[in-house]
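Structure tokens please, single chain.
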Amino acid sequence: MKHAAALSYFKKTVAMLEALRETELPKIEKAATLCADRIHKGGLVFLFGNGHSRMMSEEMTPRQGCFPGFVAMVELSLSNHANIVGMNGLRAPLYLEKYEGYAEEILKGFRFGPDDAMIVISTSGIRPVAVEMALGAKKRGLPVIAILSLAHSRQAPSGHSSGKKLADVADLVIDNMCPAGDCVIELPGLEWRTGPTSTVTGAMIINMIRCGTAERLLAKGFKPTLLPSHQFVGNTSAQEQLERFYEAYRKSLKHLYE
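Here you go.
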């Protein structure tokens, strides 16, 4: 028996990355420009994703090569579900992401500034918590960038009482190119597909935005303080840079607590 699923997944995902470059690059560049402008003015770019989309927030920060200006809004009750069953399992987060009013309570914990912005990541783009996060950010004057699957969003009804989807609320929508349901591999004997792709394309989008933002900040004469790789044992320069990053990040959050 010839096994082809692994190679098929690779080819399909690479094709999606090529499609991403061909169709979404102008929007990714626009997102990078917005982020650089906001950070240069002393603002913060918040990233929110519930469930698996949380990973995209943490891919931006904290991550090797990241820099102050980006803030990951990681709500553990919505994304800490590795146990699957029992305490901190999957059932509760899947329930909470459908509960209207929850995102607004998260937003109340922050004092946003006039130069802040929001990135909301949701492959489906239909869950109430993601839609409400975007609505709440817009209400507070933040421009909203959405990273989602247009294929899924277009064919699925909204779960929010307003009837709106994330794509309806965001100022800029970046398509992660994933099919409805995320997975791309069909195997005989399985009723459901396997091989999700949103992590691969989502991480690519996040890193393209990060790199484009850094490039634009440098063009403005603003040198971001990068988080270095701290995996080199005994490298004192890396340790010193790490301390500089901590201090720069602390200062970047100043307006949240004034």
